Amino acid sequence: MSKIVIVYHSGYGHTKKAAEAVLTGTIDAGADAKLLAVGDLDDAGWAELDAADAIIFGAPTYMGGPSADFKKFADASSKPWFAQSWKDKIAAGFTNSATMNGDKHSTIAYLITLAMQHSMIWAGTGMMPSNTKAATRNDLNYVGGFSGLLTQSPADASPDEAPPPGDLETAKAFGARIAAVTARWNAK
Predict the structure, then answer these.
(1) Domains of the chain (ranges, CATH numbers)
(2) One digit per residue, pLDDT tens: the chain, 188 residues?
(3) pTM here?
(4) Cβ-Cβ contacts under 8 Å for 24 (sequence gap 6 or more)
């Protein structure tokens, strides 16, 4: 059974809700998975990251990049970087912002760079976008992410209201994909 850790920061609760949906997808796909909030990371949490087969990074997009709290975690990951503790682990990432675009790609690019510096193997969504006239807001991958999961929560919506159901279903499918990719990688 693959061991997956989802390490994330959530400023207002929306990114946490997306992280929980990703977690559900990984568990439903048979992985041993857990959430770790960056603010709660202690020595045991760092050890869990080191022992994981895959790490999924999650951060809200604020002002065109990951939150300062997530960046603080990334900067603190220099110790496992130096030891190459995460080398050849599967990596993936997700972000949430208030607008449909919100420069989310900058955050995903940051997460990819973090993973590459750790010598990890990046996995994208593996999903086609819902980009036809018949598409609705609650279709899978409506926001259209390929390199990472993208979710959207209106600025005035509570975490009880957003991300919308389609984004949460996309998050579950993304989690299931990362679990499958990790299992396949581990079988080699």
Answers:
(1) 3-187 (3.40.50.360)
(2) 999 999 999 999 999 999 999 999 999 999 999 999 999 899 999 999 999 999 999 999 999 999 999 999 999 999 999 999 999 999 999 999 999 998 999 999 999 999 999 999 999 999 999 999 999 999 999 999 999 999 999 999 999 999 999 999 999 999 999 999 999 999 97
(3) 0.97
(4) 172, 175
